[in-house]
Each structure stands twice: as structure tokens, then as C-alpha cells.
Amino acid sequence: MMYQRKGPPMSDTILTDAAAATAFRRLVTHLQHRTDVENIDLMGLAGFCRNCLADWVAEADGGLTKDQARELIHGMPFAEWKSRYQGEATPQQIARMKESVAKNADSH
């Protein structure tokens, strides 16, 4: 089954930059607080995770490396976050992630 966006296409004019920035900061704070939710689970449910978000930030900024952006999103160096909060992924988590990520192919 192919993923299809429902409704009209998103437009950059829907939100002001200030509203988007405020919502983004709240999302980052929320993700930093919810360390119990692993990236593999985010990938399995939503098709993106903290690392994806950091990569998008680095790409949009143009001056940040992926490591710098990941530290901003995780609130600490990624290696430290990974050692503190990331467990081994189960085969079920990996399968769910692959299925979810496959739905991203036609949305970007």
C-alpha cells in the first residue's frame, strides 16, 4: 500500500516563522524529556526520529554538521545519549521501522 498525503499540500504560508519556531522548540524539549521513547520506536510509528530531525536541521542550517545538530536535538552528544537511553532493537522493532520508513519514499 502506498502512502498518500490526505488533504491539500502543505504550504510554508500556513504558519508564521515565529509560530513554527516555537512549536519546533517545544517538540525538541518534549523529545529530550521523553528519553523512554527510543528512536527505533519513533521510526516504527512515525517514520522519523530524533536523528532524522537533527539531520533536517543540519540540512536547513547549512552551517551545522550532523553531529552538532544531533547534540542540539538530543541535548547532549549523540554517543552519550545512545549509551544512556538506547537499547538493542528487537527484530519486531526493526521490521516495523522498515515498513514505516518505506512509506516515506513518496512524501519528500
TrEMBL record:
Name this polypeptide is given: SMc04008-like domain-containing protein
SUPFAM superfamilies linked: SMc04008-like
Transmembrane segments annotated in the record for this chain: none
Domain SMc04008-like: 37-98
Domain of life assignment: Bacteria
